[in-house]
Amino acid sequence: MKRINLFKLNVFYILILCCLALIILNSCSLFQNYFFKESMVVFSQNPGLYQNGTQLFIEFSTDNPSDTIYYTTDGSEPTSGSNKYKTPIAINTDTTLRAKSYNGFASSLENKGKYKFVDSFPNYNIGEEGPSGGTIFYDKGNYTDGWRYLEAAPRENEGEDITWENSTWGNYKIAETSKEIGDGLSNTLTILDNLIADKEVNAASYCWNLEIEKDGIIFDDWFLPSVYELEEIWNVLNYQYPTYSSTEEIDYPALYWSSSNHATESAWGILFLNDEVLSSTERIGYTQKNQKNKLRAIRML
Fold this sequence. Notes:
Layout (H helix, E strand, L loop, with lengths): L5 H22 L1 H7 L6 E2 L4 E4 L4 E3 L1 E2 L6 E5 L10 E2 L4 E3 L3 E9 L2 E2 L3 E8 L16 E10 L2 E6 L6 E4 L21 H11 L8 H6 L3 E3 L2 E3 L7 H11 L17 E9 L2 E6 L8 H4 E5 L4 E3 L2 E3 L1
């Protein structure tokens, strides 16, 4: 009778089990997002412009109490060897904050922000070119929480053919984000925090990773606008887009993503089409998150 080499057989089965385990762990979003979940760090005050003489105390927080937060104030990338967050950080001079949370062997996506202190605040007009070469499209009337204006990125920096969320098996993760003006940044952070395991570029990550250089300055503080912020972009900048007399003439996808969630599998967007094709109420709508649409990033200043 032929003998079976039990050692080789056991090694074979062990290798098979290891391969199956790797496949399961790689595809199981429950494992990725809950058992080893690291939350993106939230800053208690927005980065932006503040009056000279102002003393800020920036607190960090995450959704997971077991996270450990590390940060830098010199613009360098934070690691587990950087400053460990314990108490609020006092800032009264120009400072770049970068922070990550760690949970076991995993680290979160980095949050970042530049705090700048000035003697007098700059003033802009709606429709005027902004510091990055984009266009000022919203003015809230006064500087609070680091900002007064919203600037849309130059049109040549728009994103195309990008989904809102790259989910499989209907496993969508974002439950709710705001529609309001001023909430696009917090919406974007919420989306990024929940979609950190996604490998493909999505609408929020495209904006978050966008860098635009103007006059030697790199602007990297972009985010995906809320639906009402997006509506303001259309109200001010609709002249930048083609006009059509009927929907039959449209030869490109015209829906632009917002960071406002509509339902489990859909998000709000706006069709950038002129009034001869759509009324203002028909322009705002929603679509499936896995559809590929356009986007235009914005920033606060």
